[in-house]
Design goal:
Shape: globular
Structural class: mainly beta
Number of strands: 4
Strand order of the largest sheet: 1-4-3-2
Helix content: under 10%
Oligomer: single chain
Length: 89
């Protein structure tokens, strides 16, 4: 049985991937937040958010409480911000 928070591909195959020149920076705690400074002054910044998967009852409004992962990226750097980990750090 997989651990509760195990994430990864369920099967092998071809997947979209970032270009090789993009460096990924994980933001897991407050100390890691300084890595976001790599994006300051960049001409373009992209943003994306991911919510934690969960089953929601149609009669229950206790769904997602907000994004679990927030991504900010420039042409050469991608910062993946673990909002749940950051909240708990």
């Amino acid at each position: 049985m997989r651990p509760k928070d195990f994430f990864g591909p369920f099967r092998q195959g071809n997947y979209l991937a970032l270009p090789g020149h993009v460096k990924v920076h994980m933001i897991l705690n407050e100390q890691d937040c300084q890595k976001i400074d790599l994006l300051v002054g960049k001409p373009y910044i992209g943003a994306d958010a991911e919510w934690r998967a969960q089953v929601v009852n149609a009669f229950n409004n206790q769904g997602n409480k907000g994004p679990a992962l927030f991504q900010l990226s420039s042409e050469h750097d991608a910062c993946l911000i673990d909002l749940i980990g950051l909240k708990n750090s």
